[in-house]
Each structure stands twice: as structure tokens, then as C-alpha cells.
From TrEMBL:
<dbReference type="InterPro" id="IPR009030">
    <property type="entry name" value="Growth_fac_rcpt_cys_sf"/>
</dbReference>
<keyword id="KW-1015">Disulfide bond</keyword>
<feature type="domain" description="IGFBP N-terminal">
    <location>
        <begin position="70"/>
        <end position="148"/>
    </location>
</feature>
<feature type="signal peptide">
    <location>
        <begin position="1"/>
        <end position="23"/>
    </location>
</feature>
<dbReference type="GO" id="GO:0005576">
    <property type="term" value="C:extracellular region"/>
</dbReference>
<protein>
    <recommendedName>
        <fullName>IGFBP N-terminal domain-containing protein</fullName>
    </recommendedName>
</protein>
<keyword id="KW-0732">Signal</keyword>
<dbReference type="InterPro" id="IPR017891">
    <property type="entry name" value="Insulin_GF-bd_Cys-rich_CS"/>
</dbReference>
<dbReference type="InterPro" id="IPR000867">
    <property type="entry name" value="IGFBP-like"/>
</dbReference>
<dbReference type="Pfam" id="PF00219">
    <property type="entry name" value="IGFBP"/>
</dbReference>
Amino acid sequence: MQTDWVLLWLWTCWLGLCCPTEGQKRVRPGLGQECDGTFGGRCDTNLTCLPDDVYDTNEAGSGVCRPATLAPGCIPCSEVKCPRGKRTCRTTRVTDPCGCCSDCARQRGQVCGGPHWERGYCDWGLTCALFLGQERAMPPQTGVCKVLPGRRPDALADPLCPWVWGCNVRVGNCDCYGVQTCHGYFSYHSLEDCRKSLWEFQYYIPGEDEPDKEKTCWEKSCEVEEGQCMCYWRICNSHIPLVSKEACEDQLRRGKCYNVSCPEVPLPSCPSDSFLSEPYTPPDHCCPLLPAACTCNFETCPSKPPRCPPGQYAHRLTRGNGRPGTCCRRYLCVPRQSQPGTEKRDEEED
């Protein structure tokens, strides 16, 4: 029996759950020292954990602490005032490429970018692109989230985002590494957190931590008091609606904007190759700062020229410049040699 307790204690220490003494507490690595996912990739102040070779994306398992550098268009986070974002998101949360503020990921047709990305960043598979043209938007430019032709953002890595280190569970083991991403990619910040979770899952006994159904039910609800949202715990009551923090803040905002009359802006009629973006209203504002606008829907553009009947070829009518009405290349099947020189030129440019 005593042997079993010794083995259990050794197993616990191997998982990193033994309480360290003051002299054993781990210190964040300094300049030039090795860092990796076992400690969440955290370096000392003003340092960041980068792979040994930042150009080799396959070697992201360990890195070296180097001076932190600002991404293009970013300023130090100490100078940034993050907007009040929603506590809960319908999809995912993202951190801006500057690594300063976290907010709900912008969806297709929503505004993004702006000075140091203050207007948000896009969700998986979308790119913050210019409203007109085929280029991505970079601070201080304001863009719209959509799919760009020939650009499929990597679901795992984004070169605009900071390096993030952490751990995920794979095949029953903790796998720790780093990746450039603005999304919440890791389930655990460090190896210790991951091992602790595995330990709790392995030795979890169903029923031990189940809540007592006979105990009094409590719930948290919010209401507007003196111009602000106040949240309290109360006994569960199905007759009184439960108001979340987000719903209370929306109610407060609607009350603030109740007597505000926003100017009417007519909605434009978009061509078939484009769609209408959503108007942008900054936090704590009542009226949209940017109206809805037409922007190209590149998902409707053909990826290659059409197949023409025998004796004909696809002659390009328009080049496509990323502007509504002329978003895509347009082709017309015409008889060969009907326009001398154009067939060879079309083949070379396509």
C-alpha cells in the first residue's frame, strides 16, 4: 500500500503538480535564452519568443527570446485604448495583429483594419481587403472582410499576427509549440496547465463534483441603474427575465441614442459581381461612421477561362480591376483567327 502512494507521488511530480519551493520557482528566460511551449513561450519584459529560424515555419517547437518588435502599423500597447468589446461572440474571438486588444472576429462584409487595427480583424478564411481593388488593407487603411482571389489565409498561421505559444492535447499527450496567429488556437497556455488537465481527466470520478439539486439555485442578472449596468446574484426566478451583461449594455446604448436622429443615407444598388458591406458604427457612437458600400465578391469570379466549342477560343473582354461592375475578367467565345493577334495575347496574359 505504501508503495502505491510513493508511485502516485512520483507520478504527480512528473506532471509538474508538486508545489515548488521559492528557490525552485521558474524564472522567465532572458535575452538570448531558449523558450518554448513548456512555459507558454513567455520571455522576460520587452522580449518575445521567436523560433530559431523565423523563416522556417516547420521548426516552431522551440525558440529564443529576442527584443519585441512592433508589427507594421502598430504602436506600443501602452498607448492603445482598447474599445469596449462584447463579452460573448457569436463566432470566435481574435487578438489584433498588434497583440493589444481582443474582440469578436469580423465576418464577411464587416469593416476591419483602421489605425493600428482598431476596427477589428477578420475571422478564419477571410482577408481584410480594400473596398476597391484586389489588395489587402494595411493600417491605417480601413478595409472589409472578404475572400481575395488567389489568397486563402492559412487556418493555422498568419504572418501579420504575433507569435503565440501554448499546448494542445494530441493522442493523449501534451504537444507544445508556437505559431503566428490572431485566433485562440491553443487550449492551454503552458505545459503545466495541460498536464494538470490530463491528470484531472484521468482521475475524475463521475458524481463526486455533481451539484446538489436540492441546493438553492442562483443566477446572475443585470439592470440599468443611474446610467450604468449593475449585475447582482439572485435566486432563480422563471417569472422575471434574466438580463445578461451584454443585453444590459445594448439596452443602455439604445437609451443613450434614443433621441439621436441619424441622417438617412440611401443604400447603393450593387452590380451582380459585388455585394453590400455593413455600415460601421464605432463603440459608444449612435450613428454609423462609415456607410454601407459596394465591394467586389470575388467568389463569383471564374478561376479560369471558359471552355469554348471546337474552332473557338476564350477572348478576354475585360481584365477585371476589383471595382464593382468590373470585378472579374470577362470572356467571350469567338472563332479562331477572327481577330488577328488577340488570341496569342490572351493566352500569354491568362
